[in-house]
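Sharing a chain and its predicted structure for anyone who wants a worked example. Both blocks are below, sequence first, tokens second.
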Amino acid sequence: MDPLQHTGNASNAPDAGPRWTFFTNHFLVLACVAARADLRVRDIAAMVGITERATQAILSDLAHDGYLERIRVGRRNRYKVRRAEHFRHPIVSATSVGEVIDLVLSNGRSSAVG
């Protein structure tokens, strides 16, 4: 199964799936870009389970705060994860984005990709 496949929404309906997840939408968007830099905004939105507008806002947040590099290719934007950036919260500030992405997207492999 694709580790980025959306598995349910966060509503309170009994059969709607989980109410919450450990990963924020910001992290899920970042993980999508890390896994496949060629994804379109609509593809990322569908994978995360949010609107295209929300996805665009998250991409802007991540680029503004230095976690993504925005690269213009023709009429489209491509994004590259800045893997050496560290998380802002003091509890995880010693950990780089790349370390977490490698761990989360490794799919159980013994060595991380990338």
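Comments welcome. The domain at 25-105 is CATH 1.10.10.10 (Arc Repressor Mutant, subunit A).
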